[in-house]
């Protein structure tokens, strides 16, 4: 039986390799053209030391303390020349993808669905045979090419890959290069390219309650995460707070309702910042974070939104005198032409 190993490099590139039963991660990577740095294969030098963020594995006993201490192994550090996967795993590699000869992959696809969800948000799906080989961690993004421009824009996946199809939520920016293409020229069947996956913002193993905070189209990575959670289940409470500026910015609420029905212990709330809003819950995301959501620090916080929101949430949590067990965030800003 083989297992999928996601190798996350320090420059944000992620590549997946398949490890056969009993095969070390270093050997599996090398067999598939990725050179994790190492000076020995005997657990003696420590050059291939990485960090296992998720998954089950065994290290055996064929390495020395100088290469990997007991404390490091307890924390999750591994020697990839000794690591043998017992499940799918995520491994953080402290080297760039270029050093490891593992540049980001490129894929060709076609527009399969295009829908303007509101004045401010566009839903885009692309599909292609090549995408059936695309693997990524829920929460990651790709660089999507704007046809005819030679330029790319970064967008988080808003869905998992199914039958060679993936989806995105794209903010409709006046004058934006991608927005202008999608609203003015794009048709179903048009070709598009994407390169990736990329990013260190992705769903980790769920070991405690989660607080998910989304701003605007920062909702996209969370819908992909929630698809994964709906598949694998979770025993821990999960709460999403989704904040937007105007009423028309609220999208995908039906989808969130569906997740709430499918995922035990999952709940969500939405809020609108505009004073003119007619939505029942008004204000900013920080005004709707309750003490129970922070669980006295025994919580993993995921945050995706524009820079001012990220900074406001970070300051709010500091003011509560609580340090979350983990705090993962991703900032994004819209690009104009």
Using only CA atoms, what is the Rg? 21 Å
Instruction: Label the structural class.
Output: alpha/beta
What's the shape?
Answer: globular
* Low-confidence blocks of residues: none
Domain module count: 3
Number of distinct helices: 7
Biggest sheet descriptor = 6 strands, antiparallel
CATH superfamily of the largest domain: Nucleotide-binding domain of ferredoxin-NADP reductase (FNR) module
How helical, in percent, are the residues? 10-25%
Any idea of the CATH class of the largest domain?
Alpha Beta
The share of residues in extended strands comes to 25-35%
Overview of this structure, please?
By secondary structure, this protein is of the alpha/beta class. The chain folds into three domains: 3-93, Ubiquitin-like (UB roll); 105-198, Elongation Factor Tu (Ef-tu), domain 3 (Beta Barrel); 210-331, Nucleotide-binding domain of ferredoxin-NADP reductase (FNR) module (Rossmann fold, 3-Layer(aba) Sandwich), CATH 3.40.50. Helices cover 18% and strands 32% of the residues. The protein is built from seven helices and 18 strands. It has helices spanning 25-31, 70-75, 177-184, 220-232, 253-262, 291-294, 307-319, and strands spanning 3-9, 14-19, 49-54, 57-58, 77-79, 84-85, 89-93, 105-116, 121-127, 141-146, 151-156, 165-171, 191-198, 210-215, 238-244, 266-272, 300-305, 326-331. It has a six-stranded antiparallel beta sheet with strand order 11-10-13-8-9-12, with helices on one face. It has a five-stranded mixed beta sheet with strand order 2-1-7-3-5. A hairpin with a 4-residue loop joins strand 8 (105-116) and strand 9 (121-127). The longest helix is centred in the C-terminal third of the chain and has 13 residues, at 220-232.
């Amino acid at each position: 039986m083989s297992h999928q190993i996601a190798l996350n490099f320090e420059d944000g590139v992620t590549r997946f390799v398949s490890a056969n039963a009993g095969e070390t991660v270093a050997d599996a990577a090398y067999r598939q053209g990725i050179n994790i740095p190492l000076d020995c294969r005997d657990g003696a030098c420590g050059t291939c030391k990485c960090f296992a963020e998720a998954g089950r594995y065994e290290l055996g006993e064929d390495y020395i303390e100088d290469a990997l201490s007991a404390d490091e192994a307890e924390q999750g550090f591994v020697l990839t020349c000794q690591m043998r996967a017992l499940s799918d795993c995520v491994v953080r590699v402290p080297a760039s993808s270029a050093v490891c000869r593992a540049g980001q992959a490129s894929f060709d696809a076609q527009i399969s669905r295009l829908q303007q969800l509101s004045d401010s948000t566009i839903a885009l799906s692309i599909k292609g045979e090549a995408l059936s080989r695309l693997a990524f961690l829920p929460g990651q993004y790709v660089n999507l090419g704007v046809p005819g421009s030679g330029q790319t824009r970064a967008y988080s996946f808003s869905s998992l890959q199914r039958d060679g199809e993936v989806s995105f939520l794209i903010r409709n920016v006046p004058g934006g290069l991608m927005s202008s293409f999608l609203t003015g020229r794009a048709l179903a069947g048009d070709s598009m390219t994407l390169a990736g996956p990329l990013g260190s913002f992705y769903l980790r193993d769920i070991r405690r309650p989660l607080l998910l905070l989304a701003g605007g189209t920062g909702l996209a990575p969370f819908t992909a995460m929630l698809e994964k959670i709906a598949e694998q289940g979770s025993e821990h409470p999960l709460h999403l707070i989704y904040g937007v500026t105007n009423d028309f910015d609220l999208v995908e609420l039906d989808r969130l309702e569906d997740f709430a029905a499918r995922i035990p212990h999952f709940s969500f709330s939405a809020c609108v910042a505009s004073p003119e809003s007619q939505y029942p819950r008004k204000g900013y995301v920080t005004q709707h974070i309750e003490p129970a959501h922070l669980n006295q620090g025994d919580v993993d916080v995921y945050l995706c939104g524009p820079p001012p929101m990220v900074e406001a949430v970070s300051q709010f949590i500091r003011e509560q005198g609580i340090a979350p067990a983990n705090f993962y965030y991703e900032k994004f800003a819209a690009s104009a032409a």
